[in-house]
């Protein structure tokens, strides 16, 4: 199921990022532990009551060297294109400014629901001025104070009320959904085109849940695939599409709907900071992953090149040790036939369930091999293990005291489980739980 998306637009300093941070709160700090992922998020998950959704802080997407009004126009366009509901934020201590009116002009053209949030209404007295914001023509304005957390409940109730109805269970379980992510020019659209042209089957575009997202079906090796639309795959020549933040935002949206994520690396230019960022987000989503080295035709090769390149990539992406690497050329189509089998394997492993008795045999053998950790004279006792989830496979290990489960010991158990069941392409989770 696709989560609804809320975009926040408004002039600089009205309080967009304050609200964004309040909404996504702790979630961000967990995410930022992933290597390569920096603190400048513009897209993240939020929750209100029992509804979870995604938020975009359009203020964080800057198109360099453009005057303020142009920037704001781009941000409003991104909001219209990428979200289901738009929160148009104003500064209640300043009233409606000329720049606000410019933003409003763009928003009038969209048919997305727009909710007016008038921020910095820090005390009830200030609310008397709220009526002037009706003049914008977007209906009831909501007075809020991001700093003091006032009025946010009413605002969010209204925002959530505008979420489109979700079409549940439209997904076909046998179909593998995958996305192709990577910084601009790594060859995402070339790869998708190569996959589609190679197959003589007629491909069809499926209308996505939003009007703009177009997914593509592919049938290959006896398997149905859906390629999820990602940034840069259809080039429309909009200025903001070249910005890093926008391409990350689009990648995150695509990752969310994928079973398998193909993270593209350009063999010609090597690894850049942005590659790590994009891959880090994919890793943290818990999806199956494949590292695809594209433009392999540009490398002068001998029998060692592949191994050497792999070593270089592995040292930069240590947390992706479960992701297989595929080397290919979207241009010459060399080795492109190796991709779909890898996607299939990763997807199967991502959804794999292992029998409890076999799992416990594996754990017991592992315990016999390696002494269990002892902390301050207390020894870890492992009682039993069970798989509690798939996508990704997640295991609960019941122990006498979870604080005795050392990171390195958990890592050791994880490796034994991987060796025994073959979880190539998928992350796996292990949780230690107390059981007396
Ligand atoms: P953005 O540029 O729209 O993302 O704005 P920020 O979230 O960075 O906020 C700009 C400034 O306004 C910061 O100094 C905030 O502390 C301040 N601010 C945000 N919300 C409120 C509020 O509710 N009341 C007051 N008085 N200040 C606020
Ligand atoms: P995207 O922005 O990630 O979608 O990248 P494109 O698919 O538009 O490719 C960017 C550039 O790289 C284009 O000029 C492509 O022709 C080129 N390119 C893509 N794949 C390959 C490849 O396998 N080998 C070579 N030599 N060039 C490639």
What key phrases describe this protein's structure?
single chain; 436 residues; alpha/beta; Rossmann fold; GMP Synthetase, Chain A, domain 3; 6-stranded mixed sheet; 32% helix; binds guanosine-5'-diphosphate
Provide a compact summary of the structure:
The protein is α/β, with parallel strands linked by helices and 436 residues long. Helix content is 32%, strand content 22%. It folds into 3 domains: 4-161, 3-Layer(aba) Sandwich (Rossmann fold); 176-350, P-loop containing nucleotide triphosphate hydrolases (Rossmann fold, 3-Layer(aba) Sandwich); 356-434, GMP Synthetase, Chain A, domain 3, CATH 3.30.300.20.
Q: Could you give the order of the helices and strands? A: EHEEHEHEEHEHEEEHEHEHEHHEEEEHE
- Helix count from the secondary structure assignment: 11
Could you give the distance between the termini? 38 Å
Mean pLDDT: 86
State the CATH topology of the largest domain: Rossmann fold
Question: In this structure, how is the largest beta sheet organized?
Answer: 7 strands, mixed
Query: What top-tier CATH class of the largest domain fits best?
Result: Alpha Beta
Helix content class? 25-40%
CA radius of gyration: 24 Å
Say what oligomer this is: single chain
Low confidence ranges: 200-212
User: In the residues, how many domains can be counted?
Assistant: 3
Specify the CATH architecture of the largest domain: 3-Layer(aba) Sandwich
Number of DSSP-assigned strands: 18
- Structural class by helix and strand composition: alpha/beta
CATH homologous superfamily of the largest domain - what is it? Answer: P-loop containing nucleotide triphosphate hydrolases
Protein name: GTPase Der
Keywords: GTP-binding, Nucleotide-binding, Repeat, Ribosome biogenesis
InterPro entries: G_ENGA, GTP-bd, GTPase_Der, KH_dom-like, KH_dom-like_a/b, P-loop_NTPase, Small_GTP-bd
Function: GTPase that plays an essential role in the late steps of ribosome biogenesis.
